[in-house]
């Protein structure tokens, strides 16, 4: 599952935290509650095991009733598109396995401290009738402050019926299973206690007590081999701590701690000075005495011994020889003939895992075919030929079908289409569809503006989450007061809102070229497509001439005329700026790119403009208020 995937429209995947034989754990963000969570998604092949799922949900829901600071909280148990998942408290930090590897050797007080926290959690679960079944350092988390949190309570129930042929799946757990688990016997609370003893052994020594090449070999040692002494690894370990290990890992259930309270009490004072050199603990010894039954001895003195003739002796020896040869021949036949074995169930395994499982039954991996599958992830085995549980001869070849994952297709381009129609269509294909709204002046309401997945990207539809941005239609806006806007400024404003602009002209004493009226009025709500009508003050002449001038004079040498006239600049009360005015003129003495005059006005203000123009020369000016041209004339004549 890729980063960014939105599970059930709520949990946004951030990254993978770890993978196991039955599930993958992801770090995710709960976008509703704005917090990080851990999500455990079960293997796809378990979703068809209704009994396992019922047990899993029943016990997982029971865990929500547990209240202990050393048990990971479960927030949600749900299913989406066939994916069974748990949403749990995210514990930043590490697990006990990694902690032991990086901190070994641990101080004895720290070992006791960690173990008492673990016992507190397990005792709470046992009090509610919940057996963990899979206690191991990998399931014990340590947060950044060094506190313990146990996870995966009851999760192993979902795969309790898996056989020991799932070697790779169980290899991590088989180092900690009790003898009764290894034999397939009934699991009790004392089974958890045995696992706790193994964990205590590992914290003290840095090693597990039993090693082996296969899970089966390790399991055999759990119920056949004597528990190694922790003092063989470190002579300084107090005998009282070793006694807790031996008492917890007794093969005989009658000798093992009967409940977690007993182990907790024994461990809590194990470092007391009075206990450091106590005698080594020994469980109840079961010694089976063999009783030899002796035959009655009769007085055979009166019976003369039987005598064997040479011929009879030869016949007897010949018969014994024939029988011996037959027995040897039969034994050779049995040893040389391939035995019949049962094909293990390797569905859901990788090729490497399956090969190890088949080798354990002295079977060989045959042909490998690949098919698409919506049930198994890419690289997992879908089925075998012969099928699981079929009886075959050893050394037989087992063909397998390997999943290529789900078939992928281009996602498609849905922009411009109706959201409801598209969502219904994609949901049927298993896509998780969500939407966000956005105002648009170009895309009709309810139509898709954009999509989070490229149209050409190939996806597995029932593993895909898409977010569509859907048009909420044009956004309503309140009209500004456009008084004293130029026609160009009014047009720009209308374009921004998607309005149709209609321009009328009317004679006015106001500054020519400026808006003097508008319809609808300022403050009216409008939306894209509506019409805005403005009336512009008409210039009653083609140019400003000396008739407007306050005074004028002519240079007889050059023929240039100098004249002045007033321009009234209105104050904009509704303007968001500060009414900063800049005036530019172009004549014989001024360049149009240079500012002629600058001022900040607080009311309607007259400015006197002085031009010097030679014969046949025209001038021009413009007035800019807060960066916006509000008046201009390109044909000023004297």
Write the layout of secondary structure elements.
Layout: E1 6-7, E2 11-19, E3 23-30, E4 35-42, H1 50-63, E5 74-80, E6 83-89, E7 93-95, H2 96-103, H3 108-127, E8 140-143, E9 148-150, H4 167-174, H5 179-183, H6 189-205, H7 215-224, H8 239-248, H9 260-268, H10 310-336, E10 340-342, H11 351-360, E11 364-371, E12 381-385, E13 391-393, E14 397-403, E15 409-410, H12 419-428, E16 432-438, E17 448-451, E18 458-459, E19 465-471, E20 477-478, H13 487-497, E21 500-507, E22 515-519, E23 525-526, E24 531-538, E25 549-554, E26 561-569, E27 580-586, E28 597-600, E29 605-613, E30 619-625, E31 628-636
Parallel strand pairs: 11-14, 16-19, 21-24
Antiparallel strand pairs: 1-2, 2-3, 3-4, 4-6, 5-6, 7-8, 8-9, 10-13, 12-14, 15-18, 17-19, 20-23, 22-24, 25-26, 26-29, 27-28, 27-30, 30-31
Binding site for ATP: 40
GO molecular function: ATP binding; protein serine/threonine kinase activity
Catalytic activity: L-seryl-[protein] + ATP = O-phospho-L-seryl-[protein] + ADP + H(+); L-threonyl-[protein] + ATP = O-phospho-L-threonyl-[protein] + ADP + H(+)
């Amino acid at each position: 599952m890729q980063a960014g995937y939105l599970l059930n429209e709520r949990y946004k995947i951030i990254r993978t935290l770890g993978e196991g034989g039955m599930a993958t754990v992801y770090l995710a963000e709960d976008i509703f509650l704005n917090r990080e969570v851990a999500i455990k998604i079960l293997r796809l092949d378990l979703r068809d095991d209704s009994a396992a799922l019922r047990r899993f949900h029943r016990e997982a829901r029971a865990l929500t009733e547990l209240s202990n600071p050393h048990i990971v909280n479960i927030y949600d148990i749900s299913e989406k598109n066939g994916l069974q998942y748990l949403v749990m408290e995210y514990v930043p930090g590490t697990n006990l396995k990694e902690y032991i590897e990086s901190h070994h050797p641990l101080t004895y007080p720290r070992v006791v401290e960690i173990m008492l926290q673990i016992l507190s959690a397990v005792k709470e679960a046992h009090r509610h009738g919940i057996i963990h079944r899979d206690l191991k350092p990998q399931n014990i988390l340590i947060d950044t402050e060094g506190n313990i949190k146990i996870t995966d309570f009851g999760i192993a129930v979902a795969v309790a019926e898996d056989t020991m042929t799932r070697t790779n799946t169980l290899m991590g757990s088989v180092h900690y299973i009790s003898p009764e688990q290894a034999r397939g016997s009934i699991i009790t609370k004392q089974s958890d206690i045995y696992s706790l003893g193994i964990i205590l052994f590992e914290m003290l020594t840095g090693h597990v007590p039993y090693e082996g090449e296969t899970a089966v070999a390790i399991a055999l040692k759990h119920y056949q081999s004597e528990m190694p002494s922790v003092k063989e690894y470190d002579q300084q370990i107090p005998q009282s701590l070793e006694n807790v290990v031996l008492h917890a890992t007794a093969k005989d259930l009658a000798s093992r701690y009967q409940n977690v309270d007993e182990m907790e009490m024994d461990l809590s004072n194990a470092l007391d000075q009075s206990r450091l050199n106590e005698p080594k603990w020994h469980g109840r010894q079961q010694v089976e005495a063999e009783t030899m039954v002796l035959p009655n001895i009769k007085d055979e003195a009166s019976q003369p011994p039987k005598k064997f003739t040479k011929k009879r002796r030869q016949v007897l020896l010949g018969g014994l020889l024939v029988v011996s040869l037959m027995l040897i021949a039969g034994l050779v036949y049995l040893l040389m003939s391939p035995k019949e074995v049962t094909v293990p169930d390797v569905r859901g395994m990788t090729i490497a895992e399956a090969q190890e499982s088949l080798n354990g039954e002295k079977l060989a991996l045959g042909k490998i075919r690949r098919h698409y599958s919506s049930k198994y992830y890419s690289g997992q085995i879908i089925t075998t030929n012969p099928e699981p549980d079929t009886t075959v001869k050893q050394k037989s070849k087992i063909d397998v079908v390997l999943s290529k994952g789900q078939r992928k297709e281009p996602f498609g381009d849905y922009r411009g289409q109706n959201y409801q129609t598209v969502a219904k269509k994609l949901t049927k294909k298993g896509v998780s569809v969500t939407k966000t709204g956005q105002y648009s002046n170009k895309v009709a309401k309810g139509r898709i503006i954009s999509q989070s997945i490229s149209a050409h990207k190939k996806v597995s539809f029932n593993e895909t989450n898409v977010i569509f941005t859907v048009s909420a239609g044009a956004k309503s806006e309140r009209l500004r007061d456009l008084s004293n806007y130029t026609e160009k400024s009014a047009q720009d404003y209308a374009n921004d809102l998607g309005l149709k602009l209609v321009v009328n002209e009317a004679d006015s004493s106001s500054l020519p070229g400026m808006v003097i009226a508008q319809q609808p009025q300022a403050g009216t709500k409008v939306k894209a497509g509506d019409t805005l009508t403005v009336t512009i003050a008409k210039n009653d002449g083609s140019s400003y001439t000396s008739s407007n001038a306050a005074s004028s004079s002519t240079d007889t040498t050059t023929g240039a005329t100098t004249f002045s006239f007033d321009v009234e600049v209105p104050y904009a009360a509704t303007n968001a700026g500060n009414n900063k005015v800049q005036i530019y003129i172009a004549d014989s003495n001024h360049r149009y790119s240079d500012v002629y005059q600058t001022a900040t006005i607080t009311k309607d203000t007259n400015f006197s403009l002085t031009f010097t123009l030679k014969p046949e020369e025209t001038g021009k000016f413009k007035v800019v208020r807060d960066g916006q041209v509000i008046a201009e004339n390109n044909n000023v004549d004297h």
